[in-house]
Amino acid sequence: xxxxxxxxxxxxxxxxxxxxxxxxxxxxxxxxxxxxxxxxxxxxxxxxxxxxxxxxxxxxxxxxxxxxxxxxxxxxxxxxxxxxxxxxxxxxxxxxxxxxxxxxxxxxxxxxxxxxxxxxxxxxxxxxxxxxxxxxxxxxxxxxxxxxxxxxxxxxxxxxxxxxxxxxxxxxxxxxxxxxxxxxxxxxxxxxxxxxxxxxxxxxxxxxxxxxxxxxxxxxxxxxxxxxxxxxxxxxxxxxxxxxxxxxxxxxxxxxxxxxxxxxxxxxxxxxxxxxxxxxxxxxxxxxxxxxxxxxxxxxxxxxxxxxxxxxxxxxxxxxxxxxxxxxxxxxxxxxxxxxxxxxxxxxxxxxxxxxxxxxxxxxxxxxxxxxxxxxxxxxxxxxxxxxxxxxxxxxxxxxxxxxxxxxxxxxxxxxxxxx
Length: 420
Prior knowledge:
Blueprint: E1 5-9, E2 15-20, E3 26-33, H1 47-54, H2 64-73, E4 77-82, E5 87-94, H3 98-111, H4 116-134, H5 137-149, H6 163-166, H7 171-181, E6 187-193, H8 197-208, E7 231-237, E8 243-250, H9 258-269, H10 280-286, E9 291-298, E10 305-313, H11 319-335, H12 340-356, H13 361-372, H14 377-381, H15 383-388, H16 392-402, E11 408-415
Parallel strand pairs: 2-6, 7-11
Antiparallel strand pairs: 1-2, 3-5, 3-6, 4-5, 8-10, 8-11, 9-10
């Protein structure tokens, strides 16, 4: 097997994934925590993203400004992000400098500074971030659609959180969130690059194995009930352009229908990062001048989430016209098996996107940890084979099951013409 992955669980429960890649003198190290907006109750929405911000405030051993300069001086780069299901931090460094990243993450797993001044500073930053998003019509529309699609499950709220909670979350709540979820048993360390596995694992044990495991973090178990009929909503706001977003409930990343749905998505929307102008929806909506643009996406999540299509409307067309054309294209998928050649092209596009997203060392380390959040590494290694096995009948079947009108949320943004 090319570039096999070594997987080890430390005595304190932390999972370690190591992949030697000796193509360049670079190492990428990612640490993943199983906590995201999915773990946030009402009243504390946005707390995972805010905690991620606080982790850059540094520790006593690694003050924030000193650390940033040290990583830059060593030729490295670092960042972090929060999703619905996880929070992840990474450093990509010259191979001989990776020890700085390992020491940093071991320290801030335990000793991150959550002082009141820093918390209030980040409150201002995150509220400003939220206000900036609220100036974007597509954010307002997307959030309204998400709220309507999930009444019970915590996927209801956006990752950045609700403004009411951003104004009231306390320092102690943030620190408790950090102490609850930033524990070894809730973490995965994924490293790829130019190293020797035995010595790397020895160093990881030295730095991480003595960190206390902590308790198993609580999980919110609130499955979303089946939607009983189509939901329609309207959002009004500034701007000159109308948008419509249509969302269907889609299964999670480990469901057997996930792969046929990825091919269906490629047929309708084209492949992200590649030309999408040959896709069915672009040809039907944009080429025929019913819309200015159309795009779609789904996500790989722990629990069932959404497949969304966003239409940017032409000012000289009614929004219902574009929605009718969208419905016609979906009905074609439901009524007739897609020709083999078109399926092969869609699979080829989806494979290309996957390959582009897996080619460098940083991406290799990313995929190891990412798949560990909802499955295991075999999900990644089997991805291309499972796509290749998708048949026209598979695509027709999942279109019939999941793209029914009664399972969709249709949101339209109506501009008031006052500019953005």
